[in-house]
Design a protein that fits this description.
It is a single chain. The protein folds into two domains: about 325 residues, no CATH class; about 90 residues. The mean pLDDT is about 85. Helix 13 packs across helix 15. It is globular. The longest helix is centred in the first third of the chain and has 27 residues. It is built from 18 helices and five strands. It is mainly alpha-helical and about 425 residues long.
């Protein structure tokens, strides 16, 4: 939730102009933030402002994904794909979390649908070209990491044209030029106000040396596999089985989808090798679009081996229910904070802070600062908050356990207030 609050206070609450031009880090998912600004005109409920756009686009994503898969596969494959996708742990999580990932996912799926229609159908090519251009531009405008699925689409498109000897290279080059132009226009305020380096570089990610990169690559891929499938052990083995079996089944009847699936995974791998980076694993959540398709294809194939139609229907129904139940169980683990000691202790801390009616506080711990700031506004109990040495004689001090007492304040005027596993806090003795 701290990312949601940071996005609200640093971008959304400052208005559309600031959101469109202030880009201190990749945490500003610009198009998502602008949609939140729109909701902010009608509501002062921070959670509603931050989560409503994400929730709406998560529903639209599932709808477009179903339409896309149903266009080329059976109803059962389409249903299993959408259920597997929508109830995957991290997809489900970001569907109800105020960040731009669900909107990014929508534009990836919409781009997938448009590019398939452009390549595999001759009808309404101009319309689908426009859809692909617009969805790609807005995908980039939401988050620059749209680059990775976009490269997969681009490589797949030119491979398809080459293998089928259809021509049309100039058409796709022009489409990509339109996309590049649209991106430059939308990012112009950011480039002018914040500089182009804020887009092209990430302050939290620096290239590794080749020796470190190769020595840690397998560990990174193992961590990524475990993250995507949300399992602690053998994630890499399970993901490899899904990829190999799923692509092999697609290669028999839907070769285009087999190649698309392959490019979806190979292109990002090549990119991280070229860049020598081990990105935060959450940026690869979009791979679940293909993982879900492969899961749907595999399960449908296995169930088709049974001869009895009624039995097949029952098995399909049971599998769908189990996938939904598993997704609900995992997200319930987060919602009810089982095992999330940090946030359990944070909630308890905040409750005691607002019972004490402090008027000012120096808070050096980032997450505590954001949550106290949010609660101050949400509860309509204003606290003057400080994050730097500008704090003069605050009534409350909150610091990480590793920090020493602020040197510019007189420790004799304070006593220990609340101490937990993560922070120490002090209050002025006069308030006792």
């Amino acid at each position: 939730m701290n990312d949601e609050l940071a996005s609200y206070f640093y971008f959304v609450d400052k208005g559309v102009l600031v959101t469109a031009s202030y880009y201190p880090s990749t945490n500003n998912h610009i198009f998502f933030s602008e949609l939140c600004c729109l909701v902010n005109f009608f509501s002062d409920n921070i959670l509603l402002v931050m989560r409503l756009p994400a929730f709406i686009f998560s529903i639209l994503t599932c709808l477009v994904l179903y339409i896309t898969i149903k266009r080329f596969f059976s109803f059962r494959v389409a249903l299993l794909t959408v259920v597997s996708f929508s109830f995957a742990y991290h997809i489900f999580y970001y569907a109800i979390h105020g960040r731009g990932y669900s909107i990014l996912m929508f534009f990836i799926v919409l781009s997938l649908y448009a590019i398939l229609k452009l390549l595999l159908s001759k009808e309404h090519s101009r319309f689908y070209a426009a859809v692909y251009i617009c969805s790609s531009i807005l995908g980039f405008y939401t988050m620059p990491l749209f680059l990775y699925p976009f490269l997969s689409f681009t490589v797949f498109s030119f491979w398809f044209l080459m293998m089928n000897r259809k021509g049309g290279y100039i058409k796709f080059i022009i489409i990509n030029l339109f996309i590049a132009g649209g991106i430059c226009i939308l990012y112009a305020p950011v480039i002018l106000m914040s500089g182009i380096s804020t887009i092209t570089s990430n302050p939290w990610m620096t290239p590794l040396s080749w020796s470190v990169f190769w020595n840690t690559l397998l560990n990174y891929l193992s961590e990524l596999s475990a993250y995507l499938l949300n399992i602690d052990q053998y994630g890499g083995v399970c993901l490899a089985i899904v990829l190999i079996c799923g692509i092999a089944l697609l290669a028999k009847k839907q070769k285009e989808f087999a190649w698309l699936s392959l490019f979806f995974f190979v292109i990002p791998l090549l990119m991280i090798i070229i860049q020598r980076l081990h990105y935060f694993v959450r940026i690869w959540d979009y791979l679940w679009i293909i993982i879900a398709l492969l899961v749907g294809v595999i399960i449908s194939f296995v169930i088709s081996l049974f001869n009895n139609e009624r039995l097949r229907t029952w098995i399909y129904s049971i599998v769908v229910v189990l996938i939904i139940f598993n997704g609900y169980r995992q997200i319930d683990h987060v919602v009810n904070k089982k095992g999330f000691g940090y946030y359990v202790q944070l909630d308890s801390f905040i409750g005691k802070v607002f019972e004490s009616n402090f008027s000012s506080a120096y808070i050096s711990e980032d997450t505590y600062y954001l949550f106290i700031s949010y609660n101050s506004e949400h509860r309509k109990m204003p606290i003057q908050l400080f994050y730097t040495a500008a704090a003069k004689d605050p009534e409350l001090i909150v610091q990480a356990k590793s920090e020493k007492f602020p040197v510019w304040l007189n420790q004799g005027n304070y006593e220990l207030f609340i101490q937990n596993s993560f922070v120490n806090s002090y209050r002025k003795i006069a308030l006792k």
